[in-house]
Every structure is written in structure tokens, then in C-alpha cells.
Design goal:
Helix content: 40-55%
Low-confidence stretches: none
CATH topology of the largest domain: Rossmann fold
Number of domains: 2
Number of strands: 12
Strand content: 15-25%
Radius of gyration: 20 Å
Structural class: alpha/beta
Strand order of the largest sheet: 3-2-1-4-5-12-9-6-7-8
Order of helices and strands: EHEHHEHEHEEHHEHEHEEEHE
């Protein structure tokens, strides 16, 4: 398996997700699709009451211009970087539905972690959570701060012997195969006949070894720490540049319920994180 179709969610506030998507497209010889959402920001109800037709029309025209500018900038950047076959697509309607539709035809989706200080709508902060659960493809989330010259030189795999973690490892194989170092971390894992087996981490290490991936297994005791905090601490200690993990969550009566570790990582990530649900 390799990545031959990559989609990147364009972010007008930050270039890093697009730069990561373009670099991966170059590394894997992949077709790159930039997804740009036509979006007219919602106004508070008390403001909406006083907005006339002229102002409403001007807001739509401005949003259209911004969408066109974002697509043009993406295309120009692709040409400059030498990414052949790149294309920009502008989506209307619900962004989650639009992303999910186009993600079905991609091997990997790249998007940025929202900046909590820059989010104008609280829903913007939950957008990645919904996207991960809806798109059916691995999502590479890029932190809102920092620059990322390498992705996966030293990869950390958060292994919990679950369906989601298994999916994430399989989805990340193209990155893991080219990594210089891979560390599998288990947190508070106990031997069990139906989960981790007799030696936590050993079975997934053997699986990866058969794919040509050299792995070090680190069995960690959380010692009262949240597992998400433990992972972030070990990533810093190891100077890793990629985290691979399963995303745990579901929608319930219009409420998004994410697992504790997933929630911690989505909020406080320091390196790009490949998540699969």
C-alpha cells in the first residue's frame, strides 16, 4: 500500500497543513486535491436581524472571492513546489458532508488542528472531531503551532490492541515503512488472551517487522497520568515527529462523544497525528 491520492483541507489562516500535504504528495508521487469550503460566517441572531439584503449580498460575494483566492493560491503553490496533477475543489453546503464525500476517494486526508484563539465559531473547534469520525479515511492532523520539516522520521505508535488502533497502524504503513525509527508505546497494558496477548506490544511489533518496519516496544506505566498526557510526554522525550493512534468516539443524539485519550491529543498535540476511526 502507498498513498496515491491525498486530500488536504485548505486553511486560510495557516499554510502548514497545505505544505505538509504537498510534501507528502511529492514524497509518494501522489495526486493532491485541495478542498476549499465556500463559507459565509454565521452572525449572532441579534446582528442578523439588522442585516439588510445589500449587506447579506456583499458577505456572500466576499466569501466567494476568498474561496477563489484560496483555490488560486493552492494551485500556484503546487506549481511552484512541483506537485504535478494537483487540483483545487470548492465545496458548498455542509463542510463535514463535503469533506466525507471527497475523502472516500483519497488514501489520506490532511487537515489542521483548530487554533482555539482564532476560532470564531465554537463549532470550528469540533470540526476535526466530526471529520475523523465521518470520512472513513486516515486523517493526518497538523498542529496549529510549529513547522514540520519531517513527518515520520521517528514515529510513535500508540498501541491499545483495539480495532481503531489496528486500523491506524495499517493506514500508516506507507509512513512507517520509510521511518528511520518506530517506537510502539503501550500504556498500562496487561497480558491478556484476547487483547495484548502474552507480551503487550510484541504481536504488533512482529506484524510491522514482517512489513519491513523495525520497531522498539516501550511498555509504559501511566502512574496516575492520563494516557494522552503520557503519550505527549514520551513524544517529547523521544523527539518524535509523528504519532499514530486510533480515534475513539461516536455521535449520540447530536452530541459528539470522543474518548479521553483522543480528546487530549486533539487538544494538545505537539506533532502531526495520524488518526483512524
Amino acid at each position: 500500500m502507498t498513498y496515491k491520492n491525498i486530500a488536504v483541507w485548505l486553511d486560510a489562516k495557516r499554510d502548514a497543513p497545505t505544505e505538509v500535504g504537498m510534501q507528502l504528495a511529492l514524497d509518494f508521487g501522489a495526486h493532491l486535491v485541495g478542498l476549499n469550503h465556500f463559507h459565509v460566517p454565521r452572525l449572532p441572531p441579534y446582528v442578523q436581524t439588522y442585516v439588510g439584503e445589500d449587506i447579506a449580498r456583499a458577505r456572500i460575494e466576499r466569501a466567494s472571492e476568498e474561496a477563489r483566492a484560496a483555490s488560486a493560491a493552492f494551485s500556484e503553490n503546487a506549481v511552484r513546489r512541483g506537485v504535478t496533477g494537483a487540483e483545487a475543489r470548492t465545496l458548498g453546503g455542509d463542510p463535514i458532508s463535503g469533506l466525507a464525500t471527497h475523502a472516500r476517494y483519497a488514501d489520506l486526508v490532511v487537515m489542521g488542528q483548530p487554533d482555539p484563539q482564532a476560532a470564531l465559531d465554537p463549532a470550528d473547534l469540533e470540526f476535526p472531531d466530526h471529520a475523523i469520525l465521518a470520512c472513513g479515511r486516515p486523517v493526518l492532523m497538523v498542529p496549529y503551532t510549529g513547522t514540520f520539516k519531517t513527518i515520520g522520521s521517528h514515529a510513535v505508535v500508540a498501541w491499545s490492541a483495539t480495532r481503531e488502533a489496528t486500523r491506524a497502524v495499517t493506514d500508516a504503513l506507507p509512513l512507517l515503512k520509510r521511518a528511520k525509527k518506530v517506537t510502539v508505546i503501550t500504556g498500562d497494558a496487561s497480558p491478556s488472551p484476547d487483547g495484548h496477548g502474552a507480551s503487550p506490544g510484541a504481536d504488533i511489533a512482529l506484524y510491522l517487522a514482517r512489513h519491513g518496519v523495525e520497531v522498539t516496544v516501550s511498555r509504559e506505566a501511566a502512574a496516575g497520568l492520563d494516557i494522552g498526557a503520557l503519550l505527549l510526554s514520551r513524544i517529547a522525550d523521544l523527539d518524535a515527529d509523528l504519532l499514530v493512534m486510533g480515534a475513539y468516539g461516536h455521535s449520540r443524539l447530536r452530541e459528539l462523544v470522543m474518548g479521553g485519550v483522543t480528546r487530549t491529543i486533539l487538544k494538545s498535540m505537539t506533532v502531526p497525528v495520524l488518526m483512524s476511526h
